[in-house]
Task: structure prediction
Amino acid sequence: MSIELSLKSGYVTVARGAGRLGQGIGLLEKLERRAARSRTAHWLRSLPEIHNLDGMIRLDVPWWTYDAIDRVAAFLGERPGARVFEYGSGASTVWLARRAGHVTSVEHHPDWHRRMREVLDAQSGLCPVDLHLVEADATPAGASRYASEKAGASGDTFEAYATSIETDAEARFDLIVIDGRARAACLHHAAPRLAPGGLIVFDNSARALPPRHRRERAFRRCSARPHPVVALSRRNDAADTARRMTALRPHMRRVARLAGVALVLAALAYLGREIFLYRDSLRLQDLPGGTLSLMALLGVLYGASLLLLAEQWHRIVALFGAEPRRRTYPSYTMTLVARYLPGNVFHILGRAAWLHGGPLDTKALTRASFLELVLTPLGAVVLLLALLPALPLGQLPLAGGAAPVLAALGLAGGAAAALWVLKGQGALSLATRPLGLAVLFMALLGGCFAAIAAHVAGVPVALAAATALAAWLIGYATPGAPGGIGVREAVMVALLAGVATPEQALMLALLFRGVTIIGDVVCFLLGLALAALWRRQPAPIIAQS
Result:
């Protein structure tokens, strides 16, 4: 699978996961009620419906920018009975058929064509729709302009698809939508078929639109009208999202802030549920005396140590722009608990969203987030390498010779990623302090587990610390595991099999989960206290060159 397809798949998974969460807490229902009178609510409600044909049809919206939707809706409103030609069928086909006089749509994929035929037959109140199946050329076309730009379709050409608009030599169309394969070639053949005063909608223009001089030559062949094209980007395009966030009006900012508060409250509710579920397991009578007191003390220590990562985040952000701690610290402490939500990404997205609108643009925030994703686990890898000489590698489930190799590979990969993000900026010296803070935090994390493991089961300090670090790393790298729940506990039980009984290993895993949950709550409360303290102080003036 290509990187582009992997990223899209990840985006769809996260968006749908957020949709399921919103459905569970009633947020989608509230957004749907407000969608008719609030564009912001409609946009938020539509995000989880990506690649969901029925959901988009129910919302009566094509997957275009809202500016484009408004312009096309107004255009069709002024032209009763408009003839529309569409490359690439989907929710937009139904949306157009509710507003136009006749729609002709061509689709290259047989299964999707069959699905669209069923959907169109089930709809009422549509204008006549001619849906044609035009698959990839049986013999690849000689001209490269017919090749598909779509990831995963390398080698396919679509000459018959692009020229299908020429089937009726006399036909002219008021609106032509280009949202399928070989889009530059489709534009080449579509331009002469545009009726006077017509409109061409070209989706994903930043990716697929041909050079300007070729566009202008194509349009001059059909008419002398200037700009007969609407060049659009998809609604999940990063640049379009950045423009939307930058242009948020005050009431829209309030909606975003309320959504963030709802996210934090949902995460805190989840943490409370976890503590409630664990309480019975922690009441076992064979626990050594003082275990629960030690767990509470270690939870407070762990929560305070998380401020080291808040400082790391502040220093990483400072590499890309000037932000005061009164903003960077809350962006970390207030969103940290969101990692317990399904998807394990909301705390990362939350930090960037918290700082949006400040000195850092979207690109800089993305690079800062990526650098944090690299440097934090790199701190655990550095500490693991330091602990290797003290570990009984031969007794661990992982072969002794493989452990140093894997740790070294992790160190090399993390260093390479950090150098790539900071290229040209004196990368090594800039990354040293954030990395040092990560190493210090990991030392405290390992120390907390070592203290409770020694108290309950007499596990050697070095082995216990290494177990905690390895479990943290594997949980961190597991996609979709909220806070590493389940994954880290399983790793701990496996790694402690040779030095503790299964019951002791399971108990230690549960106790340490309790320590980290207490610590996350403590960190959140410390963040609230710091935010209250900073609010009493005058805000500093940040000079920008």
Notes: The chain has 22 helices and six strands. The beta strands are 83-87, 102-107, 129-133, 173-178, 194-202, 229-231. Residues 158 and 282 are 64 Å apart (CA to CA).
